[in-house]
TrEMBL record:
InterPro entries: Alpha/beta_knot_MTases, rRNA_MeTrfase_TrmH, SpoU_MeTrfase, tRNA_m1G_MTases_N. It comes from Alexandrium catenella. This is tRNA/rRNA methyltransferase SpoU type domain-containing protein. Keywords: Methyltransferase, Transferase. One of its GO terms (cellular component) is cytosol. PANTHER family: 23S RRNA (GUANOSINE-2'-O-)-METHYLTRANSFERASE RLMB. It comes from the Eukaryota. One of its GO terms (molecular function) is RNA methyltransferase activity.
Length: 252
C-alpha cells in the first residue's frame, strides 16, 4: 500500500553499490546492518556509513539463521532496507524495462543487471513482479538495482503503459512466438522505448500485448525457448544499439 518494499538484503557487493547510490544522491533508507564478529575494520566502517544501527553476532549463528543462496553468511552482511520505493511514471527517464508478472527474483535480478549495464535505469513493475524486487533480486543484480528508478503499477499495468505511450515511448512486447525479429530502436539516438518482459511460463499479459506498438522475438535456429533473462538480454542489447550514449558504449 505504501508502494515500498521492506526486506532483508545481503552481500557486500550489494552494500557497496547501495552506498555508492546514496553518495550519488539517491535516498535509500537502511534501518540496520547485521555483521558477523571478527570482520576487518574497513568493512565495519562501510556498514556504519550506511546505517547508524550496526549489530554483531556469532558467524555460525548468522549462517544458521540467514541461509542465503550463493552467499557465505559466515563473512557476509545482512541489512534491512526500504527498497524500492515507487516513483511516478513522470519521473522515469526512457528507455524503460517493464516487468510484466515475472515470478522469479533470480530472473528479475538478472534482467535488471543487464538493463543497467545497457543504459536502462527506469523500471515499471506489475503487481506480480513488485514482490520479487527482493534481497535475492538485489544479490543477483550485484546491487546495481539501487541505481535504478522504479514505478509500481498498482493501478494496473495498462494504466502505466498508456501513460508511457502518452509520453511518446514506443512499447515493444517480447515473446518467442511473435514474428518480427528484434532490431535496433529507431530513429538513431532515440531513447524513447520500453521493453515489456513477461512471466516465465505465461509470457506477456494480454493487456500488454494489446497496447504494444511492436511485437518482437529473438530468432532461434534450434532448441526450445530461451530463458526469459537471456531473451531479455538479447532484446535490450538490440534495442539499445542505436541509442547513442544511452545504449551501448563503443570501444575506441
Amino acid at each position: 500500500r505504501l508502494g515500498c518494499q521492506v526486506g532483508v538484503h545481503y552481500g557486500w557487493e550489494c552494500l557497496k553499490r547501495l552506498h555508492e547510490a546514496r553518495d550519488a544522491g539517491r535516498r535509500i533508507l537502511v534501518d540496520s546492518v547485521l555483521l558477523p564478529c571478527g570482520l576487518e575494520e574497513p568493512l565495519i566502517e562501510l556498514a556504519h556509513r550506511v546505517s547508524p544501527n550496526v549489530y554483531f553476532a556469532d558467524p555460525s549463528l548468522i549462517a544458521t539463521e540467514f541461509s542465503q543462496e550463493g552467499t557465505d553468511q559466515r563473512c557476509s552482511c545482512n541489512f534491512v532496507v526500504a527498497f524500492p520505493v515507487t516513483v511516478p511514471i513522470a519521473r522515469l527517464r526512457p528507455p524503460v524495462v517493464v516487468l510484466d508478472g515475472l515470478g522469479s527474483a533470480q530472473n528479475v535480478g538478472q534482467i535488471l543487471r543487464t538493463a543497467y549495464h545497457l543504459g536502462v535505469t527506469s523500471v515499471v513493475a506489475s503487481r506480480g513482479s513488485w514482490g520479487n524486487l527482493s534481497g535475492r533480486a538485489s544479490r543477483v543484480s550485484l546491487g546495481w538495482l539501487y541505481h535504478m528508478d522504479f514505478h509500481q503499477a498498482d493501478a494496473g499495468l495498462s494504466s502505466a503503459l498508456l501513460e508511457l505511450r502518452a509520453r511518446g515511448v514506443h512499447l515493444y512486447a517480447a515473446e518467442e512466438h511473435f514474428a518480427k525479429p528484434v532490431a535496433p530502436h529507431g530513429p538513431p539516438s532515440s531513447k524513447d522505448w520500453a521493453l515489456i518482459v513477461g512471466h516465465e511460463d505465461r509470457g506477456v499479459s494480454e493487456e500488454a500485448i494489446r497496447l504494444a506498438d511492436v511485437r518482437i522475438c529473438v530468432p532461434q535456429q534450434q532448441g526450445e525457448s530461451l530463458n526469459v533473462g537471456h531473451a531479455a538480454a538479447v532484446c535490450l542489447y538490440e534495442l539499445a544499439r542505436s541509442s547513442g550514449g544511452g545504449g551501448v558504449r563503443q570501444k575506441k
